[in-house]
# Entry
Amino acid sequence: MADNHQIVSFCCIFFLKLICYIINVIPWLSNGSIPNPSWIIQYLLQKTFKDDKLKKLEFLTQLYHKQGLFRFDSKIYIFNQKLAQTAINKLEKGAENYLDNSPLKDTFLGSSQKSPETRRAIASLFRKTSIEERASSMTEDIKKMCLKMKQQSLRSVNITHWSLRLALDIVGHVLLQLDLNALDGEQDELLECMVTILHKCYALNEISTDSDEFKQANEGLDRITSNILKDALEKDDTTIQKRLVVQLHEACGFEEAKDNMKLFLMAGTETTASSIPVVFSLLTDYPNIQEELRDEAIDRWSEIMAEPTTSLPKIESLIKEVLRLYPIAPFISRQNNVPVNLGNIHLDEHSDVVIFTWGIHRSPYLWKDSKVFKPFRFLGEESLQSNMYIPFGAGSRVCIGQHMAVLELRLAIAILLHTFTFSKNQSTPDLKFVVDWAHAVVHPDKDMIHGVQTPFLTDPRPLSWCNRKALGLQGQKFAAVILIIFDHGVPNNLNGLNRDKPIERRTFQRATTGVVLGLGRPG
# Structure
């Protein structure tokens, strides 16, 4: 039975590729029509990709490459650069029923009619300079997470679990200036509500919005958010500038402030917590790349600790490549309330238009080796080949949290790599995705679990007296490590401790992991 299924799948893929080739070699003259896949193409797509809508859409972007758009499930998907840019700038945000049954429907994200006072209060906090002023609090949260991961003394960690709690605490400190203490387990109920709503309902479709489980999660989210807001409003301001929660409350009242806090808690947590597991899933596939990035973090560690906004070119290129290959926001929704023309394409009023970021970023016609993970792609000239790189959207409706997300990712990757080495183990799932089509977010379909150990146990670079600082080991702590080595045995070449003949860090392998983990990195 399995063999028959494989044969059918192979034949369907063959015919799809054949159709794609024929369509793309035949000269095509634009007449303003929007192509619509025929029943035979839709049949082959279903047989090949089952219910994986994202893969179907990605294939259709290659099938209709010359046209630059297509119609599918009553929506118009655009991936031609010029058409996409025009649609982003010319059309209104969202679709007619955008977020209609979502907890975020009454936020400024779900409605373009929210008060300008609310938008100004939010926009002021999300400016790049405002975010960078709070970078040190991000650093402290990430270091706290690493410490708690160490204290568990486990050989593997659920990076999704820790990323969610980290992201929530950073939202609390950076945006709300509150101690939510998610890393201490104080927001597990809130996180459970958020996971039920966003992942279990909207992404996995395991429950419906009419189910009791969803309603209970929604009520729990509303109750917890109300309590957080009340506690925040009772707190005295200790800074000259009013906190965001106070500005929101003064601008729009308690209920609307509460609704927008839901947005910060959910969107601010979900997107970053989805990106970090993807990054480390890829780095466990490419251990040499992981080591190179770790080198950058170690070499610039003192600068990062002194100034968290320090540039890390290789890690920044990695982030850009991950967001190119796996954009967390896979599409941008637009609508038109009146008939409109995009070039020679006519759109009837109330058309649901989707700028298909996932297809644009993975198009072989825009990117060399478009589906290959090339972490240093953005260090060279190739980064200039396409101006259609829109992981956070574009135009006047660009993602307001992009500066916070990038800084948070950069610091999290650097500090985690400085603290741990990540590897695959028998619990590590394959990297597969599900899409929350209501909120335009893509998630790994499972929690990402990886093996961990301290990096210098496997770092092949020589360890000498002059480079011990890179380990964060000074004075007595460095001497303690040497004593541990002597106690547990080292290779015969003890002269390796000589500056001229440094021993390989692999000689640390025979020291017990638990003792070395206990020393940690003080810096």
